[in-house]
# Entry
Amino acid sequence: MPAPVVAEIVRSGFVEGHHYGSVVALDPDGATAWSVGDVEAPVLPRSCNKPLQAVAMVRHGLDLPPELLALACASHSGEPFHQDGVRRVLALAGLDESHLQTPPDHPLDDAARDAVLRAGGARTSIAMNCSGKHAAMLLTCVTNGWPTATYLEPDHPLQRAIAETFAQLTREPVAVTAVDGCGAPLLSTSLTGLAHAFRTLALADAGPERRVADAIRAHPEWVSGTTRDERALLTALSGAIGKAGAESCYAVALPDGRAFALKTDDGAPRVRPVLMAAALRRSGITDEAALRTGAAPVLGGGRPVGEIRATF
# Structure
């Protein structure tokens, strides 16, 4: 079945377009509170998987201070402190940037990218937004005596360990193993499974799940960037954890056990925070700072003339 409309693009009072997708919300007890669209079919959650991958690595000996563990969960903006953090992780493994198998890229952050371009710099593997995860993968390999040259192969001991943990946290078998944008194996789950996994981390009172959740809570700027909407949301919602991913994926869990996961079919990043703010509002969140992270004005002549608004 086609995905339903989840948002409208409104310009000068006229609906000029739509976004289609699916959203699920869990109650504090883990039951489905409400949903829109198909939330049981497998999806590729992209970088929403990173906190779950980090749990697997901590289970297998990854030991990092909280800010660097947050960086292991990150789609970072490539700001100087992010890149310095990646170097710190690599140094703990006795490795350097040449061991990263992330594709070279510019920083996601506009100011950081512009600084590189002004200096005549090129795309680098360390600036790529997944380099924190890759550095953590390399450190986990070194910790366990696993080969580093093949750490992205699906049958590598690291990736098998991640797949086992992922299935346990999502409560679902992995139906599809694809290749993510960074080259790492990308595991599928349903939106409901993704929400359950984030709920498990948010409620954990000990162990690797609690360590990863606490790192995200304490250092949201390391998980995304200083100017990103994800950081603003986690800063506003005390105790929450969350992670955005490509193709307009997003998962958030609150300390009381409520959890949310969403994805749009067109993958447009502009609608992702709109939908999460609407999901939080529908589930009773009234924090204005959190809800403002979903503002998405439509501009005309450089000024707001409309908005992208959720329809559920």
Q: What stands out?
A: The chain has one domain: 5-62+150-310. The domain at 5-62+150-310 is CATH 3.40.710.10 (Beta-lactamase).
